[in-house]
What we know:
The protein is an alpha+beta fold. The protein has two domains: 1-207, no CATH class; 334-424. The chain is built from 14 helices and five strands. It has helices at residues 12-24, 42-49, 71-81, 101-110, 117-124, 129-140, 152-163, 170-179, 194-206, 265-269, 343-353, 361-376, 385-399, 405-423; strands at residues 2-9, 32-37, 86-90, 94-99, 144-151. It has a five-stranded antiparallel sheet, sandwiched between helices. Helix 1 packs parallel to helix 3 (71-81), helix 11 (343-353) packs across helix 12 (361-376) and helix 12 crosses helix 14 (405-423). The longest helix is centred in the C-terminal third of the chain and has 19 residues, at 405-423. The protein is rod-shaped. Mean pLDDT is 79; it is low at 50-69, 110-116 and 323-337.
Amino acid sequence: MERTIIALYDDLATAQRVVQNLVNEGFSRDSISLMANDASNRYSQFLKSSDTTTTTDSDVDLVGPGEGATFGAVIGGLTGVLAGLGALAIPGIGPVIAAGPIIGGLIGMTAGAATGGIVAGLVKTGVPEEDAHVLAEGVRRGGTLVVVHSDDDKAESAYDIMGRENPVDITRRSEEWKRTGWQGFSENAEPMKHEEITQIRSSADTQEHVLPVVEEELQVGKREVQHGGVRVYSHVTETPVQEQVKLREERVNVDRRPVNRPASQSDLDKMKDQSFAVTTKSEEPVVSKQARVVEEVRINKEVEERNQTVRDTVRRTDVQVDQSNSNVTSGANTASTDYSTYDTDFRRHFDANLNNSGYTYDQIAPVYRYGYDLGASPRYTGKDWTSVEREAQEQWQERNPDTPWERFKDAIQYAWDKARSKMS
């Protein structure tokens, strides 16, 4: 089954290196297409003025910032590996140079044999329409399109070769354009002039990107909360009591005793009517109560102070700068460590191995990033995976205690291998 791999590059020199690497890897010249913006008409002028591939550095100056090769060397390299390199005009883009199978379709479109233009042509190759608009706009703004038709067994090799030269991230690029009002590629748009393209690239090269480094601070305060207490009730109870008391009681006793004696004068004096009363008294208990305080219940609060350790986590934004410019060195390591180069590769590995894991690729992307950063670190230069796996596992579990290492270690090792091969 044939597959189509497409990449957009900001300059022709990079695209020429990609084409040369594809040919060196064994891809047929007839399976490779290229289309580059030629707003300055310098490409077509060179094609008209020279039909040989032997050029010198003095032919033409550099084509735009960062081209990395002279104009003549770039065109000479392309005419040496691509057949039928020619110039034509595309509606909405303007002058371009193109080669390979794509040129036949483009010529047909401009001649009226097909409708829909370059966007329709890209959609027919399997590119989603939204992406086709971005690719076409990228060429309109000075970019170069490289298309490869490959069998399944060589598609991964094509991905690696084309990804090695840092192709344009069309998702991010389209978002940048949309922020300035771009709504899609239009064949009726006025082609950009060379000066406009140069100005756009210059402003993009000098644009300042600000990445905030955010760090959380742990602030511990305190508040009063009710956690307990006592409630006191008082009530009256009645308890039976008894006491012993001695009481006096008087009684009248009448004692009659018989006597026989002569009456005395005293007795005679008492011989008259008389009466007298004898009263008796008795004691009875008198009960009274006197309240006495026999106990006091005192209620108060005591305040104790204690130290408590509060444990939590704080986050911080760490910004890692990958030195992808070959002119910048870091110690003894001058290899590019641009993680985005392998995004497509990691997506393929995810589709083949983790597509049924219950996670999306965006959720798994930090796993690949972790393995890639390990492999790109100078700390592990000269070490193989076996010697660093234990340390990598400990670091992973420390940062991700709820994410099992065994579930993702294959993806981490895969990203490690990619980074190490690139560093070496």
